[in-house]
Specification:
heterodimer, A: 756 residues, Leucine-rich Repeat Variant, B: alpha+beta, Immunoglobulin-like, 3 domains, 9-stranded mixed beta sheet, 5-stranded antiparallel beta sheet, protein transport (chain B), transport (chain B), MHD (chain B), Clathrin_mu (chain B), membrane (chain B)
Chain lengths: 756, 416
């Protein structure tokens, strides 16, 4: 078959070559052969003659020719070639009777309209005619494409079209109208007021199909007009479950902001310790969790506030990870802390998803864990690293492990982390062990012991990283680290990584008071190898010498040893080392005349001048030498990489990247005084439960149709009742009882609010 | 919101580009390719790369990169989920996702992108609704277009009047044979210590349905033991609250293939995994010895099929010499790993073993690599989840129903 294809392709090419010589008719035939055999590959042919051919094809009377030409143009676009020169020829076809052709024309039009605004206007008439088409899909498509033409002049026409379509009988067309609003706004921001009016009208729409797009438009055009939401708040909560996935995300984003401005903080006493205890109690009897009671007993929430939490909860079972994370966002930022645990399991479930989604979810979990580690502590095992995990995933996992570490699980975590140094991600695991140890001083001992073992690893990187982490840990407990430092010093003989060696020398110098016997010997050994060391190590050896001498300024041997090191350093290639040597020499040896005599004349001349000027100060320096060199150094605090992420809203792009992406709006603070809740009472509008089209997932839909109802119906009647148009009507009648109940509930609510 | 989409092939060349909010220069892709080539493996590149003007969000699947520059704040997962959805839809339209299938059907790809997203906001993403508007390529279409000759293009005008009240289901579906199949596929993710102790294990299950039912059937699926489910997510067609209250799946299904439900089960501690791998590795002077045996437990009497064990060795390993009593092994000198292909293990078979030695150019080769194993057990669901019955309402016909279950290895890893 492929052989045949290639032969046919070759034939087609030959035919194309012939076309220069022979008449049009023959070419037609030749292409006919070619077309039948080859696939779309030939559309990507960009030779000049083909390009010239496109123009002819577009002008052809035959749909198939036009189709071919258009496909070729779109293939050119894919290849990155500018084919805007064909604009006039393409626009002519916008009125084609054939829908397939029109669709391709639209694709081209949307791509190049910006560059050819005048010619693009030619197409507007066709769209306006299509807006009155019988077929709702054609109407919607016309509006979508017209509003997508990025030519500012047409914005009034687009606005008119939106206004026409927002009252369309078809929910799909209304949805498209809502989508067109942000487009119109970006074309001409001065239309904002008119567009806000449109949004206000569309907010009354009771179709779950449309509402998501309306809210999307709201979020883009007038996100601050939360006053428009009051009347629709309860409806939005109730419709949440029936909206499409993407709409749910937009609605939850809006309701989060709304709730933050309209309700009081559910966790008024923000004492984290007490929260922690409270929620731990939750885990102990997790099996018997009755989800709804917990909402009530923790804190008296506004009923509307509670409704939002209750109505968003089922969406944790959505297949769409973005929806699940949006619910998590609502619960993390809005719910009483005792309820927030409900989000952890579904978030863990998302970790089984694609790599990229895992990454974002883990970043969010890490952020939540910095504030509320107890949420994820029961799921610790889910964060164990697999050898196949990508780099960014394993780093986040290890970070989360260190964040959720507690006294009870730390041994498990350490055991797990200590498996990792055999793998290729050793260094980050060692750093994670360090973070654990810093976070939990009780466990520092076992962490250190584990790390000490790694000093004898064959992997240089492992050794280097462990020494650096050990250094950090030892700094935290300056009192009893002598034994450890001696062990480290023993390891000096086989440790070759400069950073590790430098760290050890620094430690010895800093804590030499505790190492009376060993420290001078270490300096002696270091002096022997000085010339072969790396620059960082040399600097630390000089420092070590200076520190030792400041402690024992009278020790003659030490003095000589230090001078030997300084002399070596004086002729070092690196000027940093030369500078350091000079500085320390000036600081420590300045008063020793022997020294000046021994020195060569060149450098010494300068020194002498300085000395005579500052000889009075030098005694002060001398006296305070210890304090200068051996001052208490603050231990570096190891920050987890996610620090700073918690200033962003859960789920946002800014959180993942840890910087504010343009357009990011931080969450408003809770109001201090309770805003008036009665603004949400929707009295005049009778949209309520009766008129609102019951969606598929809503409570009433599922609950009020006992399956037995189906069976009782005679077959004939069944077919009549259940055609798709009337599908919902049946249930509404059976809902009446429930609605009564709810109404009385609502009126009692209204009464209570009046009393207040 | 999502500004644009570029589809790049394995070499970083653009094969599809679509802009929803004005043009974005192609140079951006070159920057991305630079970053891409810096990584040792394409999977290690951060999914969201910051640049001064755009955030580059991308997913990498089947060797293709779907790259979306995003200029403004938006939920990160919304972008990623949408990109994955595009990939899923393309795969469903073209059977398999590959550079060739996309290039062959680029006009359909552009039409799909046009319908799926409007000005950077997702519009129609339900496969059923999309297929109503854009006909997937198939043999019949091609033949018709050939037969019709050069002069006309077959026009597919979607019948707008019958748009379904369920966004996920086509209206007016008709089949002569009504049938519905469910596949329960469970994957075991486990980490096992070198001494056989389970470090972590869990089961991820998926109920995949293939629905070929006429009209608007309303189905109710019962489980024998829904209690085993620890956490679950549903296709939007499932009534959440009904499951919450009665533990039954009640839904009006989409037409064709769809994922009805996915769930997670924590294996109880006393339950053992279907098979155990016992590795014994001794590193010696300039090489080492290894001894790997596999024992089967808890498969409900079913054979284990498609067993493939991958045992990576240190990079310095130069030569491997081994014997096995089942299947065959090869040593891949590029990845330095042993691939032991066992095929099918029957319960009555002797314990499969692979033993041998390797030599290394290093004095003491690195150890501690992770063995991964792949397997499949047909007609067995390790979680024990069982479908009890399927009832159909709202339609008079009696459909043919079928349920199949299968257990697979997910990320099944054994530390050594």
């Amino acid at each position: 078959m492929s052989e045949y294809l290639s032969k046919a392709a070759a034939f087609a090419q030959n035919a194309a070559k012939l076309s220069k010589k022979v008449s049009e008719g023959i070419v037609e035939n030749a292409r006919e052969f070619g077309l039948e055999a080859t696939s779309s590959g030939h559309y990507f042919d960009t030779s000049e003659e083909k390009m010239r051919d496109i123009k002819r094809q577009l002008d052809s009377r035959h749909d198939r020719e036009k189709m071919d030409g258009l496909k070729r143009l779109i293939a050119m676009i894919s290849k990155g070639r500018d084919v805007s020169e064909f604009f006039p020829d393409v626009v002519k076809n916008v009125a084609s009777q054939n829908l397939e052709i029109r669709k391709l024309v639209y694709i081209y039009l949307l791509r190049y309209a910006e560059q050819e605004p005048d010619l693009a206007l030619l197409s507007i008439n066709t769209f306006q005619r299509d807006l009155t088409d019988q077929n709702q899909l054609i109407r919607a498509m016309a509006l979508r494409v017209m509003s997508g033409i990025r030519v500012p002049v047409i914005s009034p026409i687009v606005l008119l079209a939106i206004k026409k379509c927002m009252t369309d009988l078809s929910a799909y067309v209304r949805k498209t109208a809502a989508h067109a609003i942000p487009k119109c706004y970006s074309l001409d921001p001065s239309q904002k007021d008119a567009l806000v009016d449109v949004i206000t009208t569309l907010l009354n729409d009771n179709s779950p199909f449309t509402i998501g797009s309306v809210i999307t438009a709201f979020n883009e055009v007038c996100p601050d007009r939360l006053d428009l939401i009051h009347l629709h708040y309860r409806k939005l909560c109730r419709m949440l479950i029936d909206a499409d996935e993407w709409g749910q995300i937009a609605i939850m984003g809006l309701l989060l902001r709304y709730a933050r401005t309209q309700f009081l903080n559910p966790n008024p006493d923000n004492n984290r310790v007490s929260q922690k205890k409270k929620s731990k109690a939750f885990y102990s009897d997790e099996d018997s969790d009755d989800s709804d009671n917990s909402l009530d007993n923790s804190y008296a929430l506004d009923p509307d506030h509670e409704q939002l939490l209750r109505d968003s909860l089922p969406l944790l079972q959505s297949r769409n990870s973005a929806v699940v994370l949006s619910v998590a966002k609502i619960f993390y930022h809005l719910a009483p802390t005792a309820d927030a645990y409900k989000i952890s399991k579904p978030l863990i479930r998302l970790l089984h998803s694609h790599r990229e989604i895992q990454y974002v979810v883990l970043a969010n979990i890490a952020t939540m864990a910095t504030q509320r580690p107890y949420l994820f502590e029961p799921h610790l095992q889910q964060f164990f690293v697999r050898s196949t995990d990508a780099v960014f995933i394993r780093n986040l996992k290890m970070e989360i492990m260190t964040l959720v570490a507690t006294e009870s699980n730390i041994t498990g975590i350490l055991r797990e982390l200590q498996v990792y140094p055999n793998k290729d991600f050793a260094t980050s695991a060692i750093r994670a062990i360090g973070r654990c140890a810093i976070g939990m001083p009780d466990m520092a001992e076992s962490c250190l012991n584990g790390l000490m073992k790694l000093l004898w690893s064959k992997n240089d990187a492992v050794v280097a990283e462990s020494v650096v982490v050990i250094k950090r840990l030892l700094q935290l407990r300056p009192k009893d680290n002598a034994d450890m430092i001696i062990q480290l010093a023993k390891a000096l003989d086989h440790i070759t990584v400069p950073m590790a060696r430098a760290s050890i020398f620094w430690l010895v110098g800093q804590y030499s008071q505790n190492l009376e016997k060993v420290a001078p010997d270490i300096l002696r050994k270091a002096a022997k190898t000085f010339t072969a060391e790396a620059d960082v190590v040399k600097l630390q050896i000089i420092n070590l010498g200076a520190k030792l001498l400041s402690l024992h300024s009278t020790d003659h041997t030490l003095n000589l040893l230090f001078q030997y090191v300084l002399n070596l350093a004086r002729y070092d290639l690196n000027y940093d080392i030369r500078d350091r040597a000079r500085l320390l020499r000036g600081l420590i040896l300045i008063n020793e005349k022997k020294d000046t005599h021994m020195n060569n004349m060149g450098v010494e001349g300068v020194e002498e001048v300085m000395r005579s000027e500052e000889s009075s100060k030098s005694t002060i320096l001398m006296n305070n030498l210890k304090r200068i060199l051996l001052c208490e150094k603050e231990a570096p605090s190891e920050e987890s990489p996610s620090v700073g992420r918690d200033r962003f809203i859960i789920g946002s792009m800014s959180l993942v990247l840890n910087y504010s992406v343009p357009g990011y709006k931080s969450l408003p603070d809770w109001p201090t005084k309770k805003p008036d809740g009665s603004v949400r009472d929707n009295l005049d509008d009778t949209w309520n439960r009766n008129q609102y089209i019951k969606g598929f997932g809503s409570d009433s839909f599922g609950q009020f149709v006992p399956s037995s109802t189906y069976d009782k119906l005679p077959v004939k009647q069944r077919n009549e009742t259940y055609d798709s148009e009337n599908f919902y009507d049946f249930y509404e009648s059976s809902d009446d009882n429930k609605n009564h109940d709810e109404k009385t509930e609502e009126s009692s609510e209204a009464e209570t609010s009046e009393e207040e | 919101m999502i500004d644009s989409l570029f589809v790049l092939n394995a070499t970083g060349k653009i094969i599809i580009e679509k802009h929803w909010r004005g043009l974005i220069n192609r140079q951006l892709v070159e920057y991305f390719n630079d970053q891409f080539s810096k990584q040792s493996s394409p999977e290690d590149l951060l999914p969201i790369i910051p640049t001064p003007k755009y955030q580059l969000v991308h997913v990498y699947r089947s060797g293709l990169t779907f790259l979306s520059p995003v200029s403004n704040e938006v939920d990160a997962l919304l972008v990623l989920e949408f990109l994955h959805r595009i990939v899923d839809i393309l795969a469903e339209y073209f059977g398999e996702l590959a550079e060739l299938s996309i290039r062959d059907n680029f006009d359909i790809v552009y039409q799909l992108l046009e319908e799926m997203m409007d000005y950077g906001y997702p519009l129609t993403t339900e496969p059923n609704a999309l297929k109503e508007m854009i006909v997937p390529p198939n043999i019949i279409n091609k033949v018709i277009s050939q037969v019709a000759g050069v002069t006309s293009v077959v026009q597919h005008v979607p019948n707008g009047s019958t748009i379904s009240s369920f966004p996920w289901r086509k209206a007016g579906v008709k089949y002569t044979n009504n049938e519905i199949y469910f596949d329960v596929v469970e994957e075991i993710d486990a980490i096992v210590d070198s001494n056989g102790a389970i470090v972590s294990s869990e089961i991820h299950g998926l109920i995949q349905a293939n629905c070929r039912l006429s009209g608007m059937p309303d189905l109710t699926l019962n489980f024998v033991n829904p209690r085993v489910l620890d956490d679950y997510s549903f296709h939007p067609c499932v009534r959440y609250n009904k499951f919450e209250n009665e533990r039954v799946l009640s839904f009006v299904p989409p037409d064709g293939h769809f994922k009805l439900m996915s769930y997670r089960v924590n294996l109880p501690h006393h339950q053992s995994l279907p098979l155990y791998v016992k590795p014994q590795i001794h590193i010696g002077n300039g090489g080492g010895k290894f001894d790997i045996s596999i024992s089967i437990r808890n498969t409900d009497g079913k054979p284990v099929e498609n067993v493939l064990l991958v045992f990576p060795l240190a990079k310095s390993v130069s030569n491997v010499n081994a014997t096995c009593n089942l299947g065959s092994y090869i040593f891949d000198p590029v990845t330095k790993s042993i691939r032991w292909n066992l095929g099918k293990i029957e319960l009555k078979d002797r314990t499969p073993m692979l033993s041998g030695n390797f030599s290394s150019t290093e004095q003491t080769p690195e150890s501690g690599h992770t063995i991964t194993i792949d397997f499949l057990i047909n007609m067995h669901a390790i979680s024990g989840l069982k479908v009890d019955s399927l009832k159909i309402y709202n339609e008079a016909y009696k459909p043919y129903k079928g349920v199949r279950s299968m257990t697979k290895a997910g990320k099944f890893q054994i530390r050594t």
